[in-house]
Specification:
heterodimer, A: alpha+beta, four-stranded mixed beta sheet, about 55% helix, B: alpha/beta, six-stranded antiparallel β-barrel, 17 helices
Chain lengths: ~130, ~525
């Protein structure tokens, strides 16, 4: 039940024109919960909402590189894989060892040294 | 380090090309009880393998030290998500983890390299004897052969158990169910069938696959040790999904066993697969289905529980000569509760198979082992799966035993019995005693023929009932020592010619003369 409420509230907030309309949606939800005696579900609804927001954030186009200075080169290489490169958020992660990694919702292009080395390692250790 | 290995590694590095293709991925949104809910993967297909990428949040060193790749099997395609059962340690799966589509259905390595090995459902080794090297992979779910590609079952597969080979004969390509309560000797019958294949010539010996579903690992280890000691592991593969394995692996294990057997069948060879047991597979499938929120039906089993077993067992077949003439024989095992063969899963499987061997707990406790209830056991293939020799001696036993069981019950109430009835009871008792057999001691079919022939022709008539087994042992020793040509003849021709029966009759007379100590006044 909290999951359904959270999903419904999330959809309403997406369609809200401004912050006061968004607040009105939240007030309506609280009123419904009070009327049905389900106020205890509010923390669970909030947790689910946070989870949904985190999921949405993860779905944004993200380009991960080992250092900032590699981002231009990475963007150029990314262009070879995508018809058009969207506006990406650049993140750094030294654990990639080198190269870059692009995620966009359900799309992944992984040109990181870490993945390549891991593939090689797994192949060699099964000999 | 071995220079050969170093060279191999160098070659792998030289030819290695990292892939940077565009991949379709999903993310785990929920995981629990062995099932992961994945968002994304819009192009996922049913039974597709997916790869859980647990290296995302780890450094290279951490990723290298973690275990092998973790796969999942897609079983539910829903509107907003895909549900996959985790084929491994579910604790490695975390919310937010990337999941990659592999584009292939679940496949396992197959081939000769599996012989002598103990593997899990995914054909990964469990015996510590090194990796399985195979060039061939086969999907574990496959359509069964159609009618046109099949041939009638016409060749016997001998279990080495007199009661079965004489009265409930099994043919290559048949499905014969072994059904009974717990601890009635079901697994023993199956293992004896594997052990007896050692008596077959190598070119016609079936490859045996024993699938242990939901069993205790100690029991599987004991079985493997028994097979190794008897030299049977050379032609056997053991697939183990123990009670500690995830429900997904337990439900898939019989399909893996069938896939391994089909490799040999497709190449014109015979294979025997034992599913021990399908009751546990049904329970594992029920657990998975409930976790996948599929609507429960009778006894909370999902609606397609019949299809689970029917599609598995249909893969057993005797192929036509055009298809190579190979066969896959299935011996599924079902455990009943309190002897109830009319409950849901047993009736399902009975209706699918080509006969059943019913093991009765009452007979077992009385010392009749194997505890085969002849009245409730049947082979729908029947004498088509018997050699002429066995047909000649086995024909009358079933009726005689059935009549004996009726008279045995009648005897408890009646006081004065006529001579004919007494004689029939006497003969029946000896026949029942003759059909007893120790576990782990399967008999080649030619010895079975000679033993039963002697029984129905009165060799053991003058012997105390409790000494029949000993006398039979001595008789077989005698025949093996003094008249081994008789056994060779029956083995090579499969027939009981007149000349052969004359030799056996003569041998019986000689046996009586040389073993007078065995023949004493019979006690009522």
């Amino acid at each position: 039940m909290p999951v359904e409420y959270a999903h419904a509230l999330s959809r309403s907030l997406e369609n809200a024109a401004n912050s006061s309309e968004a607040e009105a949606h939240v007030d309506e939800l609280v009123a419904v919960l009070k009327r049905e005696g389900k106020m205890r579900a509010l923390p669970a609804i909030l947790r689910e909402l946070e989870r949904l927001q985190a999921r949405e954030y993860a779905q944004k186009p993200t380009l991960t590189v080992t250092k900032e200075s590699d981002s231009q080169k990475a963007l150029k290489e990314l262009g070879n894989h995508l018809r058009s490169v969207p506006e990406v958020e650049i993140q750094t992660d030294e654990r990639l060892v080198g190269g870059w990694r692009y995620t966009d919702g359900d799309t992944l292009v992984d040109a990181s040294y870490k993945t390549a080395l891991l593939q090689l390692y797994r192949r060699v250790t099964t000999l | 380090m071995d220079t050969l290995i170093i060279e191999k590694i160098q070659k792998e590095i030289e030819k290695f090309e990292p892939t940077t293709d565009l991949e379709k991925v999903g993310r785990v949104v929920r995981v629990g009880d062995g099932v992961a809910e994945i968002e994304g993967l819009e192009n996922a297909v049913m039974s597709e393998m997916v790869l859980f990428d647990d290296s995302g949040d780890k450094s290279l060193e951490e990723a290298m030290s973690s275990k092998e790749a973790l796969y999942g099997l897609v079983l539910n395609l829903e509107e907003d998500a895909v549900k996959a059962v985790v084929l491994g340690d579910v604790e490695r799966v975390q919310e937010g983890m990337l999941v990659k589509s592999t584009g292939r259905v679940l496949s396992i390595p197959v081939g000769e390299s599996l012989l002598g090995r103990v593997v899990n459902t995914l054909a990964e080794p469990l015996d510590g004897k090194g990796p399985i090297e195979s060039d061939s992979y086969a999907p574990i779910e496959r359509d069964a052969y159609g009618v046109i590609d099949r041939k009638s079952v016409d060749t016997p597969i001998h279990t080495g158990i007199k009661a079965i080979d004489a009265m409930v004969p099994i043919g290559r390509g048949q499905r014969e169910l072994i059904i009974g309560d717990r601890f009635t000797g079901k697994t023993t019958v199956a293992i004896d069938a594997i052990l007896n294949q050692k008596n077959e010539p190598e070119d016609t010996r079936p490859i045996c696959i024993y699938v242990a579903v939901g069993q205790k690992e100690s029991k599987t280890a004991r079985i493997v040790a028994q097979l190794e000691e008897a030299g049977a592991m050379d032609y056997t593969v053991v697939v183990s999904a123990s009670a500690a394995a995830p429900a997904a692996l337990q439900f898939l294990a019989p399909f893996s066993g069938a896939t391994i057997g089909e490799y040999f069948m497709d190449r014109g060879r015979d294979a025997l697969v034992i599913y021990d047991d399908l009751s546990k597979q049904a329970v594992a499938y029920r657990q998975l289905s409930l976790l996948l929120r599929r609507p429960p039906g009778r006894e909370a089993y999902p609606g397609d529980i019949f299809y689970l077993h029917s599609r598995l067992l249909e893969r057993a077949a005797k192929l036509s000569d055009e298809k190579g003439g190979g066969s896959l024989t299935a011996l599924p095992i079902i455990e009943t509760q309190e002897g109830d063969v009319s409950s849901y899963i047993p009736t399902n499987v009975i209706s699918i198979t080509d006969g059943q061997i019913f093991l009765d707990a009452g007979l077992f406790n009385k010392g009749t082992r194997p505890a085969i209830d002849v009245g409730n056991s049947v082979s729908r293939v029947g004498s088509s799966a018997q050699t002429k020799a066995m047909k000649a001696v086995g024909g009358s036993i079933r009726i005689e035993l059935a009549q004996f069981r009726e008279l045995e019950a009648f005897m408890q109430f009646a006081q004065d019995l006529d001579e004919a009835t007494k004689k029939r009871i006497d003969s029946g008792r000896r026949m029942a005693e003759l059909l007893k057999q120790r576990n782990g001691e399967p008999l080649p079919f030619e010895k079975q023929v000679v033993s039963i022939y002697a029984g129905i022709n009165g060799l053991f008539a003058g012997i105390k009932v409790e000494d029949v087994t000993t006398a039979e042992g001595k008789w077989l020793e005698y025949i093996d020592g003094q008249h081994s040509d008789v056994l060779k003849e029956i083995h090579s021709t499969g027939k009981l010619e007149d000349a052969t029966t004359e030799k056996i009759d003569s041998a019986m007379e000689d046996f009586k003369k040389t073993h007078t100590d065995l023949f004493s006044t019979d006690e009522e």
